[in-house]
Amino acid sequence: MSSGRPLxxxxxxxxxxxxxxxxxPAEDDGGRDDPLLGQNMVSCNxxxxxxxxxxxAPTRVDHGGFLGGEYGQTGEPDxxxxxxxxxxAG
Length: 90
Fold this sequence. Notes:
The chain is an all-alpha fold and 90 residues long. The chain folds into 2 domains: 1-48, no CATH class; 58-90, no CATH class. It has helices at residues 35-38, 41-46, 51-56, 77-89. The longest helix is centred in the C-terminal third of the chain and has 13 residues, at 77-89.
């Protein structure tokens, strides 16, 4: 959930933290100028999830299931992929 605080005006010019802090490869330069991220950075921070609708959904929401240990996550990508294929096949 958002803290409700706006990003400081100098946020994009601040040095990025060490990528290893977040389980990212050390060679990651931490740049915030990726075209897919950059154009969505402001709108992503203003998006508000409809938590009531998510809680009411008949299925469990587990967004991190596709991430394996390579990024410090504990998902199960193979099981996630199999379940996703099953769900999408209907």
